[in-house]
Amino acid sequence: MAIDNSSYNAIMREYENIRANNRAAQVRRIEEVYEKIPKMRELNSSTGSLAVSRYKESLKSGEFSSTDLKKDIDSIKYKKEELLKEAGFSTDYMDIRYDCNDCKDTGYIDSKKCHCLQSKIRKLLYAQSNLEDIVGKENFDNFSFEYYDDKNLLPSQNITNAKYMEGVKKFCEAFTDKYFNLDRSKNEKKSLPQGEIDRKSIVFSGSTGVGKTYLSNCIAKVLLDRYYSVIYLSAKELFETLVKVNIEKSEEQKYLLLAKEVYECDMLIIDDLGSELFNHFTTSEFFHIINRRINTERSTIISTNLSLDKMRDTYSERVTSRIRKNFIYIRLYGNDIRARL
Length: 341
What we know:
Radius of gyration: 30 Å
Number of strands: 7
Shape: elongated
Structural class: alpha/beta
Helix content: 40-55%
Strand order of the largest sheet: 4-5-6-3-7
Oligomer: single chain
Number of helices: 11
């Protein structure tokens, strides 16, 4: 479950409110029945008094018949149901009603998360990601190769761009399965030889409209559906947030929380790197983000029009060196797909 304690506690408080509201609604229904069927109040209380009476009798006689008690309780239940039906109520009208019958509005079934809790967590993760709407359209299921050239060979690859993109898509799907399994305990953890690095981050590089952001969103949807936290920010939004927090000292909660999640989310997506106004501050902050996320073994996806050499010239050798060593570099080719849509 990739949400922080405060978010989890907020969801649990939501369950408490649901249970309280449902109990209050039950009380109102019971009072409504009592008003229409005065005898029901007596029948309702007789079940408990009957059990007490049977228990006292057993103490005197030394015998207790659970069968007799069950018969008496069933008889009272039958009378109550008949009265409810005669008055135009359903037989379960006085019972408590749950939003989720499976977990009884607790969020858990035998210590395991109920589907309703998983749904609430997923909804929260989607809302936090800034991708709630777009990934419904941009995902692996909707990925199409028809926009990529399937006639001419890519000079550097000796295959068509369509075939090349098939390989890229398969790699991205395998990447999510390798590092972001639904069961986190099954995520692949290699014991690598000294000096080798298990690269869990990606740079998508290429010209405008070749599928960099689309592929990032495809990966993001898989992670969100598997309850990993994802934050998507354009480079401009990312650095504007950091300026607000670190330079302007903004205390707005949305900026403070976002700046925190930049470092702590399972997957950070930085889109269109190089489009922002860069200066010493952005260069320094970019290094700190990349370096910290590498050190804490958190994944990052960067999409950019910049080549690695151009990235070095823009953000310094120190930044690019970390990216070269720890990121998988995927070059995308072709013309702007959006111009053909």
